[in-house]
Q: What sequence folds into this?
């Protein structure tokens, strides 16, 4: 069994990381999961959270929001709309993201008065954002 | 025959024009490098994204419950043309080529009896299309303040477009932008973004069977709106690089033309100066002979 796999973290604006890793903890939409080499192929959407990367050269953490991860036996690609190394995150980043989520939630409440689906989704997104902010605690 | 002073002034003015075009060319070259870098850096994201979307679309696309963004509204009566151009001129045929393509396409659609709506991004495209399609404009996005295109800019355009789509304002959306090939070639391109058309990945990749979490349709519903933003972002970056490339080669031409003009004017200037000297000499000599 291979003990490392290729890990790519890309956002639309740049490639944040491309290296060999041994395990990555992904904040999946249905719950956190850890991907290691020889994982079964999975595509999952992300919820706002912290991506925890473990590799031969140490660990790294990124705050990610929106997007998806593509996992297969030899590689893992995370495509996130927003991705910031954890140590560069400031309260302002979090507040901005929470503010965006709140605005989206309000907008959803306006547009989809009779459909609970999108409103619940937006509410969940908002809750996830707040939870992430509390979790990181910067 | 212009006087010596006129010629001299003329040469001076062309010289300062050349200085300006030379400076613009150098600025464009520097900006081009930056624009190309950003375009390059966004490419891995776009490529992966499209590959995954292609897979998903292939597996869900056939079903009736496929999202509207993928399968369309079932009609193609109302077309939204999103025309993306630069905010500034002096970049050769860049803006007018995009506007021309949009104009041809709009004309075709109108002749076919479709309704056309136009959303402009960038001032120059708006100016170019104003005369023929003023009544078709539904919106304009101003990019003057934006020095460097960020993903959030594409997101806000996408949000606007998606809101219009949800409100049933149009059935098909097409973006017009210029693809950057190299400094001398930029191809004006029309690309349909709604309903989304993803190229299915070929061969080996397609054979991997993925598990989807949550399920395929939920992922697709989540990702399709992001796909619109991604494509708009990619188009904005291509456009940025194309604009600078077009400006660079236009200014290079202008600089060269100014150089040629200066040479020509200098020759003319020297000739007429020679003629004046000869004239004076003849006058002196004939004056001396008369004594």
A:
């Amino acid at each position: 069994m291979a003990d490392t796999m290729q890990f790519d973290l890309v956002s639309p604006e740049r490639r944040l990381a491309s290296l060999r890793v041994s395990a990555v903890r992904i904040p999946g939409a249905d719950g956190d999961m850890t991907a290691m080499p020889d994982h079964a192929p999975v595509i999952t959407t992300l919820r706002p959270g912290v991506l925890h990367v473990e590799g031969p050269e140490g660990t790294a953490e990124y705050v990610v929001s929106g997007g998806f991860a593509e996992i297969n036996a030899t590689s893992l690609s995370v495509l996130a709309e927003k991705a910031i190394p954890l140590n560069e995150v400031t309260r302002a980043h979090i507040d901005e993201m929470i503010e965006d989520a709140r605005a989206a939630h309000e907008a959803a409440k306006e547009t989809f008065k009779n459909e609970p689906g999108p409103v619940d989704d937006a509410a969940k997104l908002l809750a996830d954002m707040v939870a992430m902010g509390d979790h990181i605690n910067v | 025959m212009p006087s010596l002073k006129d010629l001299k002034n003329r040469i001076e003015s062309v010289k300062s024009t050349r200085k300006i075009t030379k400076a613009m060319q150098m600025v464009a070259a520097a900006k081009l490098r930056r624009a190309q870098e950003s375009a390059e850096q966004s490419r891995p994201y776009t490529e992966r994204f499209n590959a995954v979307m292609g897979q998903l679309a292939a597996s869900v696309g056939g079903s009736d419950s496929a999202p509207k963004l993928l399968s369309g509204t079932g009609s193609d009566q109302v077309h939204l043309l999103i025309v993306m151009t630069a905010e500034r001129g002096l970049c050769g045929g860049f803006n007018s080529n995009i506007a021309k393509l949009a104009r041809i396409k709009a004309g075709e659609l109108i002749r076919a009896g479709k309704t056309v709506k136009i959303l402009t991004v960038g001032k120059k495209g708006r100016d170019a299309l104003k005369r023929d399609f003023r009544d078709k404009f539904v919106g304009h996005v101003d990019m003057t303040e934006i020095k460097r295109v960020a993903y959030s800019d594409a997101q806000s355009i996408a949000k606007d477009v998606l809101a219009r789509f949800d409100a049933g304002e149009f059935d098909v959306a097409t973006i017009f932008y210029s693809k950057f090939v190299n400094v001398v070639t930029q191809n004006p391109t029309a690309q349909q973004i709604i309903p989304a058309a993803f190229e299915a990945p070929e061969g080996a990749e397609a054979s991997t069977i993925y598990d989807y979490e949550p399920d395929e349709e939920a992922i697709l519903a989540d990702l399709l709106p992001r796909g619109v933003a991604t494509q708009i972002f990619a188009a904005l970056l291509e456009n940025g690089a194309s604009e600078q490339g077009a400006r660079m080669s236009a200014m290079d031409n202008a600089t060269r033309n100014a150089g040629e003009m200066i040479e020509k004017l200098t020759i003319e200037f020297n000739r007429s100066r020679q003629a004046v000297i000869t004239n004076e000499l003849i006058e002196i000599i004939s004056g001396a002979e008369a004594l």
